[in-house]
């Protein structure tokens, strides 16, 4: 998804120590003690260690990691539901770590909302009142808060349920109400902590679509915690992977899949549905058998070239890199026989664009006899994808060569 690269949230060297003497624990860390040693000696836990990153306006930034890796702690540091032990956090250049209580409350009301996995709707209040409750606490008048609540309910497709009560709604609908409650504040930033994890898979996918749709109409900055890789890939513009309190990699799903920083991350991505993540450019390979169209490159030269490579086909390319087509021994010989040109020998198998996802070009490759050429927007040759290459990616995921 497109987003402007304005920094919305900046986190600089943030640490969180849980325990009695956090400064002492930080000192031990500086002196090279491991988290395990510190915990053993002092009982203190390093929840987040030296986190530094930036989140851009309008992006969905997913924080992923195993249970206990520090995701919830990190997200709660952003709005200071948890106080950082050291480090700085900026929202729109405001230093959040320095705000007094009053300003902090103001920022939480106006700029940053949070959606949890399980949140309590008030059973005795109807949906409209539940959604506008936060605004009521902020002193917004009745008319304005009902308008905002109704608008938020509309955004999640529940505009007709304002007068219903929570126990009349399904789990998925209740989660939508939770989302509407966060939207009613019209926040710049939404923090979503495993917001969809309690939902059954179908409804969960529906909610992910809903979130993406909402993002299309109003570009909010969303920080989304998930332990589910498919979800992270589906909705994340970028993903940060946490491991034992530290961020071990940040990147787009493609970047991480293609270049995992370590074995832990690699193991995360094993078995992921690559067809919806990887594009042709990610799996295309350059092959040796390319013939450059120089002056005088005719059928004879092409035949010679292909036999030299002990092959029966080659990719024909302009000097500029522009892709022309596939030449085969058979088609060249035929044109030689009938007196045609090298261009007449090009066989009818179209190249695919490098930006297509695997799921979009699978059938092309299946229908082609020869490995399919991959071209960029300008028509330049970028490599080829064979059926066997595709099968390998399916079987083994990406090969990290
Ligand atoms: N209030 C607390 N006091 C002491 N330790 C804590 C506290 N909150 C979190 N921790 C510890 O900090 C570490 C990170 O926990 P956190 O809840 O942030 O992880 P998580 O990745 O969100 O896990 P999960 O997916 O299970 O929610 C864990 O070792 C946890 O035990």
From TrEMBL:
Belongs to the ABC transporter superfamily. GO terms for biological process: glycine betaine transport; response to osmotic stress. CDD domains: ABC_Pro_Gly_Betaine. Pfam families: ABC_tran. SMART domains: AAA (SM00382). One of its GO terms (molecular function) is ATP hydrolysis activity. InterPro entries: AAA+_ATPase, ABC_osmolyte_uptake_ATP-bind, ABC_transporter-like_ATP-bd, ABC_transporter-like_CS, CBS_dom_sf, Gly-betaine_transp_ATP-bd, P-loop_NTPase. Residues 33-269 form the ABC transporter domain. The keyword Transport applies. This is Proline/glycine betaine ABC transporter ATP-binding protein ProV. It comes from Halarcobacter ebronensis. One of its GO terms (cellular component) is membrane. Keywords: ATP-binding, Nucleotide-binding, Transport.
